[in-house]
Amino acid sequence: MPLVHAQQPRADSGFTLIEQMITIAILALIAATGLPLTSAWIDQSKAGQAAAQIRNAYNKSRAWALRSNEAWLCLSNGSLYVFDQKPSACTSTGARWQAELAGGSSTRVLLGDVSSDSKTQPTDLSCLAFDNRGWPKTDSLGSTACADRSTSTITVVRGSAYVSSSLY
CB–CB of 119/129 below 8 Å? Predict the structure, then answer.
């Protein structure tokens, strides 16, 4: 007599296709709502880092001015440069110090405050010149006028985020 094997009933283990699809849809919804918040947080962080880098470059420029009687701080194509002699152009040639600005060229640096109670319109930072006492002075690099002593606040803008900071 042949042996007949009875089939064992399958144990219900794992998830059904419907359950998996619902789980993936919920995760996609959470990710879609969280992504804009994450990008705003990253923009705010990059703007804060850039503001700290500019304050650092500002202080280095003042120190160089005290040592060598004058100094220049330039911002060009997302890079910061500090010179102890007047440069012909804002490039890395002859720079005593340089750094890549956090966020690169997509980060905008303004001289002045962008708050609604500000009396003056902020302008883009291109250069700052310093005298032998480490104070900003009126000067220019080529056809670009450097900011003068009246500038005490910078505003860094990246995406929808901005950070205002005092230079001294």
Answer: no
What are the pLDDT tens digits along the chain (168 aa)? Answer: 566 666 666 666 788 999 999 999 999 998 888 877 788 888 888 889 999 999 999 999 999 999 989 999 998 888 999 998 888 888 888 899 999 988 887 888 888 777 655 566 777 888 889 999 988 888 888 888 887 767 678 888 888 888 888 877
- Rounded alpha-carbon distances, angstroms, from residue 80 to 43, 75, 90, 98, 139: 19, 5, 9, 5, 18
Per domain, the residue ranges of the chain are 17-166
Long-range contacts of 39-43 (CB under 8 A, 24+ apart): 39/159, 40/159, 40/160, 40/161, 43/103, 43/158, 43/159, 43/160, 43/161
Kindly report the pTM of this predicted structure: 0.74
Report the topology of domain 17-166: minor pseudopilin epsh fold (3.55.40)
